[in-house]
Amino acid sequence: MTRIERAQKPEAVGNRELRNPKAESTMLPEGRGSERKLDNLLDSISKNDSSDGGKLPEQNAEKDIKSQEIPSQINNIEAGHETQDPHRGEKLLDSFVDKVAEVRNARSEAKIEKAKTNIESGKMDFKFLPGDIFVCRIGNEVVTLSKVEKTKLEYTKRNPDDVLKDREKFNNSVRGKFLKDLGANHEEELKQKGFSEDEINMIKAGKVPPGYQVHHKKSLDDGGTNQFDNLVLIDKDSHSVITAYQKRVTNGMVAGDCRKVDWPDIKGNIYNGGI
User: pTM for the complete prediction?
Assistant: First the structure.
């Protein structure tokens, strides 16, 4: 509702309060005209409020009577607004937001389809799209993953012997500890992402549930660590896409080589196809 500063209570002339029954029944018409009428009334109030106060001269009594119509009209204007849908503005905003989302989704789908077509035709092997969409070829299949951000990375190939030591440590102890931590501290998130009670119990016991793997976000081969914030429990299909891409962009590198690459970055510690 438009905020309105109310005029003072009508002055009395003699012993009788001045009122205008006709003015009290005035209702605000719908549409932009109501806003103009409200502006005019506010202008009128402003002009009348500029008086010196006190009683008006007798010769201006008629003018004063007319000025007292304004508060009654404002009351009726407010009442007229209240009879309309009080949530109309909110509904219009929600409708607008839905339309914007609809257009964005349509554009995103069009970009995905174009990327798939280009990949299938051999023009490219992968494509990062706005909205954290990643499209990549795996064999003869083109796969789309969501919630995969593109990160600029300077990939430095490590010594294979050092990588092997970290890999053994991961296999022997780190992976199990990571899964137990997930089960203990992220149970609700696991449920939200569709893990069953049996799968969650397996995770709590430090075991990888069927169809999943534990992935290093930044590869051990590039200086990635076994710290929990560099690990993610990921479904096998998505893991195949990510690792295939990583091998492709680092192909031919030997220890000590550096290469700037676009790297697929997964946020959080649980990934289930972008859910």
Answer: 0.60
